[in-house]
Amino acid sequence: MQITSFLSQHLQELDFYRFYWTNIQQNLLKQLQERDLSLSMKSQRLWVSLGTQDLTFNRNEQLADCIGKLTFEDIQAFGEQLANRELFGELVLYAPGKFGPMDTPEEHTLSDIAGFKMGTEYFD
């Protein structure tokens, strides 16, 4: 798959950013911890909090805490898990349109979308 190839290729190049990680991390923390500069920024932050069920309105503080604890090795491990498909499955939707049919094994092909939706668990 092209997505997996893309992830694998960029994972090999990820070490280049090790030197920059501290600066990236500090800039993210600075953005998350700065005060709202306008009423528009404040209202946007509060609406996002309401939309994400953050009724304590401290989402930025929580994000900053997580980013402050994040190491470059954590990012590398996440990238490897992502490239190795260890975090989730994948579903590729394909409609032939002007292209020919996609060559996929029968056991990996869905032809009954309604049945698939009915039998699939959704996560909250």
What would you say about this model in short?
The chain has helices at 2-13, 21-33, 39-51, 59-69, 72-83, 113-119. With 124 residues, it is mostly helical.
User: What global shape is seen?
Assistant: extended
Per DSSP, the total helix count is 6
Strand content: under 5%
Question: In percent, how helical is the residue content?
Answer: 40-55%
- The strand count comes to 0
Overall mean pLDDT stands at 86
Which class best fits the helix and strand makeup?
mainly alpha
Tally of separate domains: 1
Major sheet summary line: none
Radius of gyration computed on alpha carbons: 21 Å
Distance between the termini: 28 Å
What is the string of SSEs from the N terminus onward? HHHHHH
Low-confidence stretches: none
What does this structure look like?
The chain is an all-alpha fold. The chain has one domain (2-90). The chain has helices at 2-13, 21-33, 39-51, 59-69, 72-83, 113-119. α1 (2-13) runs antiparallel to α5 (72-83) and α2 (21-33) packs antiparallel against α4. The two termini are 28 Å apart.
Secondary-structure map:
Layout (H helix, E strand, L loop, with lengths): L1 H12 L7 H13 L5 H13 L7 H11 L2 H12 L29 H7 L5
Notable features of this structure?
single chain; 124 residues; mainly alpha; 6 helices; 0% strand; extended
